[in-house]
């Protein structure tokens, strides 16, 4: 998809845009490929946010919403009990990646 710049030149929309755009950048998209955060299309929801679907008219749109203030970094929903389990573990890994809170894979 593209938009007309100066009325004559067609310029490609930002890669985060879906179904066209009104100008340059991820803040001018008609819809987002992945999700929207505060009016800007993003490739993934950042830390301290979670993706959820909201209805805009007859269309479902994926948006990033902020986690509960009790969550350290990650959550799966807006409630205090939806913080990611790793948040409450107080674990620091050096040179390793923590895969599971129970030591599994």
- The percent of residues in helical segments reads under 10%
User: Which sequence of SSEs, written as H and E, runs from N to C?
Assistant: EEEEEEEE
- Low-confidence parts lasting 5 or more residues at pLDDT below 50? 87-91
Q: What is the average per-residue confidence, as pLDDT, rounded to a whole number?
A: 79
Rounded to the nearest angstrom, the radius of gyration is: 18 Å
The major pleated sheet works out as: 2 strands, antiparallel
What does this structure look like?
The chain is elongated and about 55 Å long. About 5% of the residues have low confidence. The chain is an all-beta fold and 105 residues long. Helix content is 0%, strand content 37%. The chain has no helices and 8 strands.
Layout of helices and strands, plus pairs?
Layout: E1 2-5, E2 9-12, E3 17-21, E4 29-32, E5 35-37, E6 40-42, E7 49-56, E8 59-66
Antiparallel strand pairs: 1-2, 3-4, 5-6, 7-8
């Amino acid at each position: 998809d593209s938009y007309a710049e100066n009325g004559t030149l067609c310029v490609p929309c930002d890669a985060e845009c879906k179904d066209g755009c009104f100008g340059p950048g991820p803040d001018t998209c008609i819809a987002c490929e992945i999700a929207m955060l505060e009016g800007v299309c993003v490739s993934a929801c950042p830390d301290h946010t979670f993706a959820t679907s909201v209805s805009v008219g007859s269309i479902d749109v994926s948006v990033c919403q902020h986690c509960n203030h009790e969550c350290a970094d990650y959550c799966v929903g807006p409630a205090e009990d939806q913080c990611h389990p790793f948040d409450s573990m107080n674990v620091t890994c050096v040179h390793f990646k923590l895969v599971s809170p129970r030591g599994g894979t």
